[in-house]
Amino acid sequence: MPEIYNPSSRLEAEKRFYSDIVRRYETEVNRFVPGYTEEIIPLVVGEVIKQAHNGAILDIGSGVGNIDEMIIDQGNPQSVDLVEISGPMIEESKKRLKEKNSTIRFHEMSAIEFSAKSESFEAILSNLVIHNIPVLEKEHLINNIYNWLKKGGIFIWTDLVNFSDSAELERCFEERKKIALTMGATVDFAEENFKKEREEDHMITVKQMIEMLKKANFQDIAILWTKYNEAIIRATK
Ligand SMILES: C[S@@+](CC[C@H](N)C(=O)[O-])C[C@H]1O[C@@H](n2cnc3c(N)ncnc32)[C@H](O)[C@@H]1O
Prior knowledge:
The chain has nine helices and seven strands, in the order αααβαβαββαβαααββ. The chain is an alpha/beta fold. Strands 3-2-1-4-5-7-6 form a seven-stranded mixed sheet, with helices on both faces. S-adenosylmethionine binds at residues 14, 18, 29, 61-63, 66-67, 83-86, 89, 110-112, 127-129, 132-133.
């Protein structure tokens, strides 16, 4: 069945969800994504710096720019391009990165509309973003990412994932909800978050992510980390 959706209202809903929480984003992401600060961020930053410490980096769905800040502070990138659909999020990242002595370009747009020359980047990362994008557009984006990478460049894809057994996904939602509430999330926001994940997001399984990467011609695809319904995959051009 083809997906039926209205792209402009879907994009507006996505923008609204993230724009509304910009000031408390880092608090909420730590509540709702177990392992975010202690495990995901160091792993992603470490992989990007290892591959591209003085190369060109693209961050797709850069949020408040916290990952880019660490990449700039810990590495010495030639440039960092940030693509982000939410205006308030990109404003926050501009404030955060304004003192950095680095070439930084901000692109306020959907990843689907972003374009770059072939072979522009040593590393591309997308952290907890692509689950927002419907499957056909996701495929198009993954093909673009392959095209934008230099030969030997890496793509670090961190995302919320689905399972072939829907009961397993529900168990993850329940466990993540308990953790979020224990960490101080409100019941209302927990409901809003998991309603979005259940009804509006477009999570795919790790197997489907790998198939999509293979179809786009990526090599050396490795699952670096998983926890609940979260995964980090590295793929090489
Ligand atoms: C969960 S946040 C992750 C932010 C950041 N990457 C991080 O790891 O903290 C998802 C981000 O993706 C952005 N986003 C959602 N859909 C997008 C799209 N189609 N194109 C670009 N950014 C998008 C949201 O506005 C939000 O800032």
